[in-house]
Each structure stands twice: as C-alpha cells, then as structure tokens.
Amino acid sequence: MSMAVVGLIAGMALAFAGYFGGFGAFLLVAALGAVGFGVGRLLEGDLELGDFFRTRDDRRDRRR
C-alpha cells in the first residue's frame, strides 16, 4: 500500500471523527494515530527506544 493511500485513509478517519464527534474526537483520533505510528516504527525496527532518552552530546559523539 502506497503512502498516499495510507495518508488518504488517515485523513478520512480524522475527517469522520471531526464531523461526527467534534473537535475533541478529532484530537483523540490524531493523538492515538501518532502513538500507533510510533509503536509501529518501534516494532519494525526503524526507531530505537534509546533514541528518546539520549542527550544531545551522546548523539553527536555517536555520529563521529
């Protein structure tokens, strides 16, 4: 599935939530979608949990 189709589905889900549930439902769907995206990236191995807890100096030293 292309990223354009995924974006279309996500946009439609947000639109339905906003239309039927109001702005609060829109924000809830957007926040849960972002959490799901992050968990999916962690499970695929694209992100490491340690990336969120390192200081800037540690990241700079690792790139050298």
The gist of it:
This protein is mainly α and 64 residues long. Helix content is 77%, strand content 0%.
How would you sum up this structure, described in words?
The structure is a single chain. The chain is mostly helical. The chain has helices at residues 3-21, 23-44, 56-63. Helix 1 (3-21) packs antiparallel against helix 2 (23-44). 2% of the residues are buried.
Which descriptors apply to this entry?
64 residues; single chain; 3 helices; mainly alpha
Mean pLDDT: 81
Largest sheet: none
Order of helices and strands: HHH
Alpha-carbon distance between the two ends: 36 Å
Helix amount, in percent? over 70%
How large is the share of residues in beta strands? under 5%
Overall shape: it is elongated
Secondary-structure map:
Blueprint: H1 3-21, H2 23-44, H3 56-63
